[in-house]
Structure formats: structure tokens, C-alpha cells
Amino acid sequence: MKIFCGRANPTTGEMEWLEEDEDYDYHQEIARSRYADMLHDKDRNVKYYQGIRAAVSRVKERGEKAIVLDIGTGTGLLSMMAASAGADFCYAIEVFKPMAKAAVKIVEKNGFADKIKVISKHSTEVTVGPDGDMECRANILVTELFDTELIGEGALPTYEHAHKYLVQEGCEAVPHRATVYAQLVESKRMWSWNKLFPIHVEAEDGEKIIVPPSEMENCPGVPSVCDVQLNQMPSSDFTALSDVVTMFSVDFSKPVQSASTCYRVQLEPVQSGKAQIVLSWWDIDMDPSGMIKCSMAPHWVKPSAALQWRDHWMQCVYFLPNEEPVLQGEKVFLTACRDEYSVWYKLQKTSEEDNKADVGVESPVCRCHAHLLWNRPRFGELNDQNRTQQYIKALRKVVSTDTVCLCVSDGSLLPVLAHCLGAKQVQYFILVSDLCNLFKANHLEDKIKVIEARPELLKASHFKDEKVSVLMGEPFFSTSLLPWHNLYFWYARTAVTSHLSSNVTVLPQAASLHMMIVEFQDLWRIRSPCGICEGFDVQTMDDMIKDSLNFRESKEAEPHPLWEYPCKSLSDPLEVLTFDFRQTVPQHCLSTEGSVNLLRKGRSHGAVLWMEYHLDADVSISTGLMQISNEKGNCDWNPHCKQAVYFFSSVIESETLSDPGAVTYAINFDTKTGEIAMDFKL
Ligand code: SAH
Q1: Ligand 1 pocket, residue 538 CB under 6 Å
Q2: Pfam families, per this entry (predicted)?
Q3: What angle, 0 to 180 degrees and rounded to 10, lies between the N-to-C axes of helices 42-61 and 77-84?
């Protein structure tokens, strides 16, 4: 069977539907899955095992048979724990077919085939009865269906259904309970991910200020969760305005309701400031006593506790609809609202406003359009004053009153900057439009012309028969996944060549691809084999991930925002390819090979690749490495961008490397596809 997969084409900037083998999709899913990360999460595994043992003992003490329902069994791990703990029988439910197949193999290999029945279905399709999937209802309910937001993967409707149809009344549940915590903070950095700040432009005729559209003022933004590794957020980047408060709990051993609801908590700020952000995380109690707790709390909550690194569960950043000044000691009300799958917050000064729990539970919808145009890192990038100043510096040199500008970039403010700096005509070609509100707020609707046509379809009439004297881009395109996908700017530049004047300035004039070999503090876990997990052999899972990574023998780099994932440089950063935007895209491929010396001892987990844009001969912007901050090799990364990470498959061997050696590489940019292929040898 063939299926269609969506993929952005970096040579056209458009989404394309490619016909793929049925297997392709699931290989992608497995290769990039979080299963390895979960299996490496020792704290989680140990506590589940303790909780499961305790639940099985309680049932046995009552003289009952222990019948377990494990919803979302994955590798079968939690069912094998239950069987080892003495459960009489386990029903292991898994909706993802390739995983269910793997679970059957793993269960068999570990000798539990007679105790565990793997059912390859969604739990809501499971039947109970003499001819059903399950002979009878279970009396122990085990699940691990949580995401960073707790409920984003549908845990609530799944529990609601399970209590109605699949488990006995008064059953044991592991985990027994989940609790969601919140802390009110002020943070310019995080607030800059959600609102556009005014931009100051120093022009010849005085200072000009670009203002955000008024619609943005009270816009609640989008409901998608903002999950980050909060432990990597420097404490200087936010101020706690409240203590940590408990927002709500869910008891999984009782019937669960998934219908929308709100939870209101009164709190007294411990400090005056601007309430902007709610930081949130949860913990799960594996048993009713609360003695076996698995917590996602960031380091400042319990500084003495050992932190377990994990990427499958992080912390959440919620944005209040508008910033609210609060005074130390003055009571305020924080409300968490949720529907079946997501949570959002609001802050009120009095308890009168919508007192009823069911009022105002609609999830946030962006009304200003900006939150649909810019995602959170992009907001952060546009609000980065330093970066904007670099563009202004470069633009100021080339923009004058007779400049005809063309901008090629998604949701870019460069046309506004160029206009402020005095350009005669500013044309704006965009793939994703809708900057209209911002143009209106700045009285620019007649000044900046938006051309909604593909670059190859531009006509001389678009430019009033003049030639473009400045072609500019950030470059940034919202369909880009990997750093080099923004090279679409080069393809667009090639397509508009006939409209460019002979002495056109292309800004940026060039880009370069950079590479560095790194040792990750933790990120390596997500792609590293697990072998034995709590005494169970899960190598079948490792092999399956390896097969998926090798599917079509094309290991790929993957995007990660490295400011969240500390690493140490083992080599100097190296410029490996350059792309001259003053010329058109060549017909032939651009390739390079060589070797890079390892300067520091350490485990070579992979190569990091990023782009640097050379706005002109003097001004460059890095989307990757900002600096190596000390002699240990710790790296600072651009906080707004994802870098490309290529994980080496032979990490283990390099671990035993006593003498730093060298890594050879071969990198090829295929100008036909816009993709970069790479190969490394340690
Ligand atoms: N229990 C495993 C895996 C947890 S990941 C472990 O703890 O290591 C969650 C798994 O649940 C995924 O494999 C997902 O496909 C599956 N899943 C989620 N909701 C489900 C549902 N309602 N019915 C069946 N499987 C589900």
C-alpha cells in the first residue's frame, strides 16, 4: 500500500505530498520516538515498579486474583513488571501496530507469554466478556499516557472510558494520583515569546518606533503547549512572584471526568511585579500513601533533590492573555482551565468575575493573527534587539530614498525596517501573509506592497517597471525544519533574477554552514540503545529503532533547540560549505569532505550543524553557536533557533577513546532537492 506524506520542499518553500511506502511513516515515527528516552528514565521506571509491586500486594492481601490492565503498553515494560510482581494476568493494550508487534516479541523473549496478552487496539475498542479481548474487568489499572502537560495525549478520556467499561469499581491504579502545580512569574525573556515588543529604529530623520497591532494587547494566543527544559532557563531570566501552588489533582483509581472544567486558587504574591507567565509541572504518586512520587519539579523547588534528566516530560510555560501588575501580599485568583486535552490560565483580582466553574472554559483562540504567523521562538527572534540592530546596521548602508526593495521571508519585519530607513518602494513577497494588522498599526498599508505570487511569477509591473536594487531576507521560512531549509531564499533569489538591477545588493550576501563535534550532557539518551531495563530485555526495541534509522540507509540530522540541551564542544567549529547569494543557485551539487580534530577528551555523541548569514562583508548572524563559554568547552547557542544534530551510531566506541582522534566527514548539498546528506567516520 502507498500513503502520502507531507514534506516541505526547500527548493520551493511549499508543502508537497509525496507518495511513500506504507512503512515510511512508521519508520519515521519510531526513529524519532520517545521510547528510548522513557526506557532511560530510571527514576520513572523504578517508581513505576515500586508502585506496581505495592498495588499487586494490596490486591493479593485482599485474597483476590490480580488482573492488570496496562493501557499503552509500548514495549510491554509495565506489564512485565506486573507479571514479575506476581500479577495473575495482564492485558497489555497498544494502539500503535508496530509497537504492539514489538511488545509481543519482547514479552515472549522475557518469558511472560503465558501471563501477558498484547491487544493491538485503542483502549476504547477493547471488549470485555467470554468472547471479548478481556475475559473479565481488571482490578489493577496501569498506564503511562502522560505528556508534559499531563493530559495532552488524551489520558483523561482514556481513563474515563476505562473506568466505565474495562476495570472494576474500587480498582487499584498505578499511578494513583497526579497533581498539577503552578508558579506565577515575571519574565521578559518568556514574555517575548508571546507578544511583539515595540522596535526602535534610529533613522536619519530621527527615531521611529514600530508598534505591535492593538489586537495583540489582549490576544490569548494559541492553545498549543509551550514545553521547555525549565532547568536550563537561567534564574536571572525570570522573577518568581508567587510560591508554588497546587492547581488540581486527578485520582486515577476513581471514575475520571474528562469534560471541561476550571480550578481556582487564591494566592498572595511574594513580590510585586508584572504577572505574565505561569510556569507549571506535575507529579504522580504511584501509590495512595504518596510515598512513591515521580516529580517534574524544576531544580529550584527542591534544590537538594537529585534531578532525573528526561525529555519526554518537561515543564510548561503558559502565557497570561495580558500582563497584570500585582502587589506583594495583595490577594489574586489564579484559574487553571482545561478541556479534554489542554490547559490554560487566567489571573483575576477579584473572586466575583465568572464565579461559576463552567464559565470561560473555551480554549484560547488567537484573534490578532500574529500567533498563527509566528511561533514562540520566532516571536523571541523578532524581539531580539541585538539581532534587529544587526539588520538595521546592514540595511542602513544600502537603503536610500531611491531604493526599490524586495523582501523574501515569512512574517518578516525587514520591509518595515527598510521603510523606516527611507526606502522609496518596498515590496514584500511572502509565502505566509497576514502582517496586515501590523502594517495598519504603523500606517504602512500603502507604503509596503504585499505581492501574493510565487517568485517565478513576479512581473515587471509589480515593480512599476523599475529594477530591484535591494533584495533582502532574514532568511526565515515557516516550513523550514532544518537550518539549511532556509536556503529557499537562494532559490527565490534565483527565480527573480530578471527583476534585479545589475548592481543589486543581496542581503544577506552569503550564508555558510558550520559544524562542530560535541559531547552532550544528556541529549544522547534519546537515541541511545537501552539493552536491559529494570531487568527486562528490551533489545528488540533497540533493534527496531536501529532498523528505522537505517531505513533507506539514509541517516538524517534532526532539529533540536540546543539552548535546552547542554553540550561541550570536542572540536573547533568549522565552516564546511558556503552559499553565495550574489550568484544564482548552481546546477551542480556542492560537496565537501575532510577531517576535524578532536581537541578535548570526551564522548563524541554527534555533530551539530548550523547556518550563519553574512548580511554584508562586516555583519554576520549565527543561528547556532554564539560562543564557547569556558575552557571546558561549554557552548552557548542562539536561543531562538533549532540546530541540526546528527547522532553518531557508534557512540559506545568513542566512549572508550583514550586519545582524542579525528572525525572524517563528507557533506553534500544537492541543489536539485535542497537537502544536505552527510556521513561521518570516527
Ligand atoms: N507503557 C510504556 C509506553 C508508554 S508510551 C512505558 O511506560 O514504557 C504510551 C503508549 O501508549 C504509546 O505507545 C501509545 O501508542 C499508547 N497509547 C496511548 N493511548 C492509548 C490508548 N487509549 N489505547 C492504546 N494505546 C494507547
Answers
A1: no
A2: PrmA, PRMT_C
A3: 40
